[in-house]
Every structure is written in C-alpha cells, then in structure tokens.
Amino acid sequence: MSVDFEQRGPFAVIKINRPEARNAVNGAVAQGIEDAIDRIEADDEIWVGILTGEPPVFCAGADLKEINSGNAGGLATSRGGFGGIVQRERTKPIIAAVDGPALAGGTEIVLSCDLVVASGTATFGIPEVKRSLVAGAGGLFRLGRKIPLNIAMELALTGDPIDAARAHHFGLVNRLVEPGQALDQAIALAEQICANAPVAVRESRKIVIEATNAPDDVGWKMSANGMGVAMQSEDFSEGLTAFIEKRPPSWKGR
Q1: pLDDT tens for residues 187-242?
Q2: Rounded distance, CA 141 to CA 152, Å?
Q3: Across-strand partners of 49?
Q4: Catalytic site positions
Q5: Whole-structure pTM value
C-alpha cells in the first residue's frame, strides 16, 4: 500500500507510505489519498483528518520518473487533482503533520490542508523552475495567500526552500515542534478540534475559506447561514445543556 489509513476515534491518520521514493506522488499515492478523504467525508464518526508521510520525508512532490515517461496525468485524480487532494472539495478539516522535506508538490499538498504542524526538520519550497517546470498544483497562487507576497515570489523565482522556523515565522506553520513530534502534536491539535461541535467546526471552516477575502456582505450572509445550520443540528441543544450542567459535551456530529 502506498497510502495507509488509520482511524483513531473521531479523527483519522492518512500516511503516504512510499519511503523508497521519498514519498513522491505516483498514481497509487494520488488515488490512495483521494480514497482516504472519501472515507473521512463519508463517515459521520470521523471529524478531522491528519495527513503525514513516512519519515524522514513528508513528500518530495511528483514522481519525476513518471513525468519523464509521459505519465504526468496519472499523478492526479479527476476530482482531487494532483495527489488526490489539491483540488478536492471537502467539508472536514485536514491537518498536515510535516516531518522532513515537503517540496514541490509536497508543499502544494501542505497548502491544500487547513492547518500545519511541522518539526524542525521540515522544509518547504516550490523548486520547479530549477527543472524547467511550473508549480501547477496550486503553489503559485496559494503560497502568497499564506505568507507575505514577496517571500512567496522569492520561493517561486529562485526555487530555494525555507526551513520550518522561517515558515512558522511567516505563518505557514501553526505549530513548530521538535523533530519526530509532528504527528503526535497534530494528533493533539486534532483532539482540541474534536472537543468542539463537529457541525459548527465544518461550518466555521467553510466561512473562513470562502469569506475571508470576499466582501463583508458575503461574510455576513455566510455567517448567518452557518449559524442556522449549527442551530438545526442535534448537537446544538447538547452544547447549551452541557454548559449549563458544567460537564463536557457529548457530540453526535450531526
């Protein structure tokens, strides 16, 4: 298997497991990631996903041997795009747990996740120009949304990477941790998210993504709609009751 899937209570861990090729994306990896996301989206018992790679590399990007053999299209799925994720529409948060390099398509996979936990061994970059390629899986427009535009431009034009500390400084990384601790800390972050009402989390994620750069009227409308969805869920009364009774809520996720 090129991609492992493990459910741990209300969250699931997706692991790219192709260490012999530095976890580079081939067709099996792309399909495996898409299938894993499908499982998360379809299962009411799973509220958060974590995406990681078998150490010591998160993902080296596209398998260049596949590209060189004319099979670049095989590195994408029809719904998910490159790696089965960069264009995948979904409702549940995914945390990237990055130990080691996440370069080229690896960085683009990270950029398609919602939160990033990285260890000090992580590096990020889009070196495609060094190979007469263009970063075509979202890096060239998503990176400048996450970090200052001039820094994104520097990465795009030089092809040089930045380390985890600099990525954390610029806001690409949510939590910077010790080497080997990215997955454990991503699990801790997932547990924090899973302590909250799943429907409210999904609606909040959607609003942040779609309304942050939209006019205020869009934000107000989406916020009102999101509140309506949350209030119609079974968990709505449980949240209020648990608060009044001073106990942890028992969410159903619907």
Answers
A1: 999 999 999 999 999 999 999 999 998 899 999 999 999 989 988 888 888 787 88
A2: 9
A3: 12, 94
A4: 108, 128
A5: 0.93
